[in-house]
Design goal:
The protein has a single domain, classed as Tetrahydropterin Synthase, Chain A. Helix content is 27%, strand content 31%. It contains three helices and six strands; from the N terminus they run ββαβαβαββ. The mean pLDDT is 90. Bound molecules: zinc ion. The site of zinc ion has 5 residues, from β2.
Length: 156
């Protein structure tokens, strides 16, 4: 059985080597759909939607770990010169209120969908440790909508 839940977050990014307008820093209202697969447990659920939401919201909003939260972050490739420049500005207290996420690839919808799959699976494994033993609960699909008409789907 598969269950899916949707989430939304705002973030800035740029694809620095892109020939088109995406090379400029800009923002998106992202929609993230996460699908997990597993057997139906004695409660009649694959997993409580609340547990799935705890895992995803921990990654997006990170109430306890703000510097790695995706919501309202600026997401850049780790080799983008903006990363070092912004981090130095933050460290020197010249740039307040910035949340930077640097990724090992250009922050395309394609890469980010796969990245979220790994992050959500890690959180589910952590959060579900006492919920149901074993690794029965798997993230099998992540769809990331970058605009109302464009999305990328990671699937296993
Ligand atoms: Zn974009």
């Amino acid at each position: 059985m598969k269950i899916t839940k949707e989430y939304r977050f705002e973030a800035a990014h740029r694809l620095m080597d892109h020939p088109g307008a995406c090379r400029y820093l800009h923002g998106h209202s992202y929609k993230l759909e996460v699908t997990v697969k597993g057997p139906i447990n004695p409660d009649g659920m694959v997993v409580d939607f609340g547990v799935l939401s705890d895992a995803v919201k921990n990654i997006l909003n990170m109430s306890s770990d703000h510097h790695t939260a995706f919501d309202h972050a600026t997401i850049l490739k780790d080799t983008d010169p903006l990363v070092d420049w912004l981090l130095k500005g933050i460290q020197d207290k010249k740039i307040p209120n910035m949340r930077i996420i640097s990724l090992p690839s250009h922050p395309t919808a394609e890469f980010m969908a796969g990245h979220f799959a790994v992050l959500v699976q890690g959180k589910l494994d952590e959060f579900c440790e006492n919920y149901t033993p074993g690794d029965w609960l798997r993230v099998v699909r992540v769809r990331l909508w970058e605009t109302a008409k464009a999305h990328a789907t990671w699937e296993i």
